[in-house]
């Protein structure tokens, strides 16, 4: 388990820059969800940083990439979704890429390389955040092989560390 090293607030300008970066990557205006005067903090960890917005662990930063955590449920409602069958759930929750045979349906439109959220078919719970290997039209017709490269999933080190901050 990752150890918390340092927690500090970011200046308003730095916080807005992070929100702007994420908005560009996701093609969604994140500021409309979190508010324009959001309090942005950073918690350093051995794998990168967890970024708190108004006290909630909504993003993580690894190297130069800032991505949403699975705790950001308000955002995942606006993202394209890959719905997987229950047989795929244990594999996705261990970090496996999403394979075409396990996909039940695809909701929303996306391009190759766009971020998508992976949810289970029974409860609609977010299991993983991934990068699409195809555009949505091609992904719908693909019958074999990986369709989504998993970047963050339930029970990974980011999830576990963010969970300790959230509680």
Question: How is the secondary structure organized here?
Answer:
Layout: E1 7-9, H1 12-26, H2 31-34, E2 40-45, E3 48-53, E4 56-62, E5 65-68, H3 73-76, E6 81-84, H4 89-92, E7 98-99, E8 103-107, E9 115-120, E10 126-132, H5 136-141, E11 146-153, H6 157-166
Parallel strand pairs: 6-9
Antiparallel strand pairs: 1-2, 2-3, 3-4, 4-5, 6-8, 7-11, 9-10, 10-11
Q: How do you describe this structure in short?
A:
The protein has 167 residues and is an alpha+beta fold. 26% of the residues lie in helices and 35% in strands.
Structure description:
There is one protein chain. The protein has two domains: 7-71, Nuclear Transport Factor 2, Chain: A, CATH 3.10.450; 75-153, PUA domain (Archaeosine Trna-guanine Transglycosylase, Chain: A, domain 4, Roll). 26% of the residues lie in helices and 35% in strands. It has helices at residues 12-26, 31-34, 73-76, 89-92, 136-141, 157-166, and strands at residues 7-9, 40-45, 48-53, 56-62, 65-68, 81-84, 98-99, 103-107, 115-120, 126-132, 146-153. The strands form two sheets. It has a six-stranded mixed beta sheet with strand order 7-11-10-9-6-8. A hairpin with a 2-residue loop joins strand 4 (56-62) and strand 5.
